[in-house]
Structures are given as structure tokens and as C-alpha cells.
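REQUEST FORM: STRUCTURE PREDICTION
Request ID: SP-0412
Submitted by: Lab K.M.
Chain count: 1
Length (residues): 126
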Amino acid sequence: SGTTTEDASIEKLLSELNEVFEIVAAVPLMDEEEYGELREHFMKGPGLDEIDERGYSIKAGTHRIWKGERDLTKLTEGVDTDSALILQRILLHTLNIERKVREMITNGGVDPDDEVESEENSEPKK
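STATUS: Completed
RESULT:
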């Protein structure tokens, strides 16, 4: 039967708002001084409400992710499929960010992605 219109619209939304979901995942780790307004927008402001107003239920699940819940089944309990897909995307970004933080700690505070770039740029070309 192929892709339904509904499937296409959630795929489009996931793609369109992927960066927003990545920011949402990073909110608890954001530096208050540098990203205070952005943190406020999602934690206490209209950020998550704007997504919920589109007909999704992600606010409660997102707050649970921020508090440390990592079990997708618990996070998506009682929400519709599209909202569950959004929460899954936010959780995936969260897990990815946590992995990067662990790698940075292991590397003595150096972001492995930055290290690769600086090695490439520091070698004089012959």
C-alpha cells in the first residue's frame, strides 16, 4: 500500500524539526549564561507548548527525558504514535549527546570531533 499521507507528514515533521528536537535534547546541559533564553523558552516558556499545539503530546515525556528517564516505553505510554516518534527522536538526540559528553570526559575534556578537525588543519601540506 506504500506510505500513507499521515506517515509522510510525520516524516516531514521529524525532518523539518530535527534541529529543534536536538536543541530540546540539549536543554538540560545548556550553559545558563550563554543559552539562558533558549533554556527558558523550552523549560518554562512556550517552546514545547508550540509543538503540543500542533496536536502532539510531547511535553510530559520531554520533561521525563530531562529528568533522566531513558526507557522509551515509559516515555511514550499513553501518547499517540506520532508523538511517540517525536519523543523517540528527542531521546536519540539525548543519548547521542550523552555519548559525546562521555567521550569528551574520557579524552580529558576535548571534543573528539574538534580533535579530528584540528589534526587535519594543523598538518602543513607538502
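NOTES: The chain is about 70% helix and 0% strand.
Reviewed by: T.R.
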